[in-house]
Amino acid sequence: MHYLLSYQLADDYLTRRAEFRSSHLALAWRAVEQGELILGGAVGDPVESALLLFNVDDIAKVDAFAKADPYVIQGLVKSYRILPWHTVAGESAATPVR
User: Fold this and answer.
1) With b meaning 16 or more CB within 10 Å and e meaning fewer, what string describes 65-96?
2) Residues of the chain with pLDDT > 70: what percent?
3) Which among 7, 13, 11, 56 is positioned nearest to 31, based on CA atoms?
4) Are 62 and 5 in contact (CB under 8 A)?
5) What are 42-88's pLDDT values in tens digits?
6) Burial class (CB in 10 A: 0-12, 13-18, 19+), 63
7) How far is the C-alpha of 82 from the C-alpha of 89, rounded, in Å?
8) Sequence-ordered list of residues with C-beta below 8 angstroms from that of 21, at least 6 positions apart, any chain
9) Taking a C-beta distance cutoff of 8 angstroms, is the pair 1, 38 a contact?
10) Is 49 helix (H, G, I), strand (E, B) or coil?
């Protein structure tokens, strides 16, 4: 199942990001290596939010990622939402429909 982790970023996100970026990216790349995180990154120019796309069998894994993320822990993320994404088209669709 695909899930989108949506981060609402704090107003000072860009000024504070550098301090926590390496640990945030280490967590993200571990999730990639475990086959759970497909894509992740900031959205907008200037940055206004962030999205991370997961492919996991349990939404709790996405929540655990967010709760362990230094950006969340340190308040760079004001809030987050986890949204099931019922993908139906594309090579990596969870439930392809033609």
Assistant:
1) bbeebbbbeeebbeebebeeeebeeeeeeeee
2) 100
3) 56
4) yes
5) 999 999 999 999 999 999 999 999 999 999 999 999 999 999 999 99
6) middle
7) 21
8) none
9) no
10) strand
Locate 91 and state its tokens.
């090579």
Length of the chain: 98
The pLDDT of residue 95 is 92
Instruction: Please state whether the predicted TM-score (pTM) of the whole model is above 0.90.
Output: yes
What is the Cα 1 distance to its own chain's centre?
15
pLDDT of 39 reads: 97
How far apart are the C-alpha atoms of 52 and 12, rounded to whole Å?
Answer: 20
The owner of tokens 């991370």 is 52
User: What phi, psi does 60 have (nearest 5°)?
Assistant: -60, -30
Tokens of 9: 């970023």
- Note whether 69 and 80 are within 8 A (CB): no
